[in-house]
Amino acid sequence: MGLRADLNETLARARGDLRMGVPVVLMGQAGAVLVASAETVAPERMAAMAVLGPLDLALTGRRAETLKAVAYDTDVARVIVPEGAPLAWVRQLADPADDMDYPMKGPLQTRRDGDAALHRLALTLCKAARLLPAALVVPVPSDFAAKHGLVQVPAAEAAPLMLVLPPLDHVISAKVPLRAAENARLHIFRPEDGSDEHYAIEIGRPDREAPVLARLHSACFTGDLLGSLKCDCGPQLNAALGQMGIEGAGVLLYLNQEGRGIGLANKMRAYALQDQGFDTVEANHRLGFEDDERDFRLGAQILEEMGFSAVRLMTNNPAKIAMMERCGVQVAERVPLKVGLSKHNERYLAVKAAKSGHLL
């Protein structure tokens, strides 16, 4: 196996272990740290970590801003966990669910000296695992992973790899007649790093030499499957497929980036914060995420894999257009997709226009 394949395997195991509440070891130039997800770690594991040395809670700059904790590293805050602090205290800092009921969680001391690179990587891994971006971090000896049978991630090689899109394997395609278009094929693309698969719905036989009618659609379980009225995703999906069916050709990419890339559980956390009066962007920030964590490079990657170099892109989002152009996919035309407005999502759509620049 090559170095990249080995690293992908290691990172996949690390994501899985963090989701199960099992710590992983990150190895950097200055030493090693033991990392556990604040969301999934058990009380006894946290207690065992606290015995090993000074315990930090790594939070994103976004979450630190809400907590009034100083993020000396700008994008990362290393909150010093007081001796004897229970797991409940950690989870109150990690999860904003009770911020309104218990707004005073400080004062919090944050670490200023030392390198935050391993704390930053810990948060990146939590995000990749679709967990809350909050991690317990404690220094350990360099042989700790080997002694305790834990996954060890080499930071110098892993951190840059996580910024690069993994190659996609085209697994299979087959005819799937749809209500919108009977001449449809479903293509399955599987990332080399073992992360979520993505799909392409090809309508008819689009000319690879001409701009194809295309839509980059991010998965939305609540909108696409349940018919939720909180967003316009379901109507956009159906309208895009319908237009492709009418024209007789097109390609819809169904990207597994639920909740603007934060996963369904965190999306529901954001919905719960919206019930408290916060808008979509504010809710994401309180959780510790950016406005939008999706990676639209995936769309360009799949289009190129399928042989398309130019699109008539069905979107209201200028960020998708910009990313397609940066990735070498020409956007010959923007095709507006304004559907799904209801009394339940008026504010949501207004925020998309005002804060995210959507053309609505």
TrEMBL record:
Pathway as given in its UniProt record: Cofactor biosynthesis; riboflavin biosynthesis; 5-amino-6-(D-ribitylamino)uracil from GTP: step 1/4
Cofactor: Zn(2+)
Segments forming domain GTP cyclohydrolase II: 172-336
GO terms under cellular component: cytosol
Enzyme Commission code(s) on record: 3.5.4.25
Domain of life of the source: Bacteria
Keyword GTP-binding: yes
Keywords: GTP-binding, Hydrolase, Metal-binding, Nucleotide-binding, Riboflavin biosynthesis, Zinc
Stored PANTHER family: 3,4-DIHYDROXY-2-BUTANONE 4-PHOSPHATE SYNTHASE, GTP CYCLOHYDROLASE II-RELATED
Protein name from the UniProt record: GTP cyclohydrolase-2
Protein's organism: Tropicibacter naphthalenivorans
Organism lineage: Bacteria, Pseudomonadati, Pseudomonadota, Alphaproteobacteria, Rhodobacterales
